[in-house]
Each structure stands twice: as structure tokens, then as C-alpha cells.
Design goal:
3-stranded parallel beta sheet, alpha/beta, 143 residues, Rossmann fold, 4 helices, 3 strands
Length: 143
């Protein structure tokens, strides 16, 4: 008999990796600067979600919760940050695919995506605020 869900241990995986985007207009990006977020952020989300699906814990033993920290830029874009918004949107899609695969396989994995708005507290956000200020524009509502 399985223990009640509230008694089971939870295993949390928080994916908050972020390549620091190169803050410049599209025409001044290179493929390398534009794709840096893809090679770091998307690869990290894909790798960890894939492993959670391939090496699940025995059914009923634990609740595995995977939280992917994306960005509000995934919704509205971020024209000053190259491929950052697209990579964050892709994280959202990959998380949704993993959630569906977990359900299909009968795994007890919860996959959640959070998309915080830009705040001037972290290095990436401070750089974004400065880049938008230099452009003479405010960031998009969800960035």
C-alpha cells in the first residue's frame, strides 16, 4: 500500500540557469551572441527534464517537482536581448512537453514554469534595464 501523498518526500529540481544575454539591437548581434541563451538556457532545461523522464523514481515513492524559471520575455519578447526571449519561450514549450510525457508514462512528476517580470535586482535584469534606458524605450510589459 502506498503512503498517503502528503507523507511522501518531494524531490525538487529548480532550473534557473541563465546565459547573460548580449544587450544590443538585432542588427548588431552575431549568431554566436544571439544563440548564447539557446545553448545555455534551452540545453539546461532539455537535459534536466529529459533525465527526470528517463530516470524516474519508483512510482509512488516521491513526488518529483521540476520548476523551470523562464522569463516574462517569453510572452512579449525582448528586442534588446537577442535570442533571450525565444530561448525562454522554448523552455516553456519543453516544460509543457515534459509534463505531458510524465502524464502519459504515469510518472509522478510535476513540471511548472514560472515567468517573472524584469526587476532591477539581479545582474541580468540590471543590464536589461540599462539597455532599454539607452534605447530610450521602456521594456515590454512582461519583460
Amino acid at each position: 500500500m502506498r503512503p498517503p501523498r502528503r507523507w511522501r518526500l518531494a524531490c525538487w529540481i529548480i532550473l534557473a540557469a541563465c546565459a547573460s544575454p548580449v544587450m544590443r539591437p538585432l542588427q548588431y548581434q552575431t549568431w554566436e551572441t544571439l544563440s548564447a541563451s539557446w545553448h545555455a538556457d534551452v540545453k539546461t532545461a532539455f537535459t534536466w527534464l529529459r533525465e527526470a523522464l528517463l530516470q524516474p523514481l519508483p512510482p509512488g515513492s516521491r513526488v518529483v517537482v521540476v520548476v523551470v524559471v523562464s522569463s516574462g520575455a517569453a510572452i512579449s519578447g525582448s528586442p534588446a536581448s537577442g535570442g533571450y526571449a525565444g530561448s525562454r519561450a522554448t523552455q516553456r514549450f519543453i516544460a509543457r512537453y515534459a509534463r505531458e510525457e510524465s502524464r502519459r508514462a504515469g510518472l509522478d512528476i510535476t513540471v511548472t514554469v514560472v515567468m517573472p517580470r524584469m526587476k532591477p535586482f539581479g545582474d541580468v535584469d540590471r543590464r536589461g534595464v540599462r539597455a532599454y534606458a539607452a534605447r530610450g524605450a521602456r521594456p515590454t510589459r512582461h519583460t
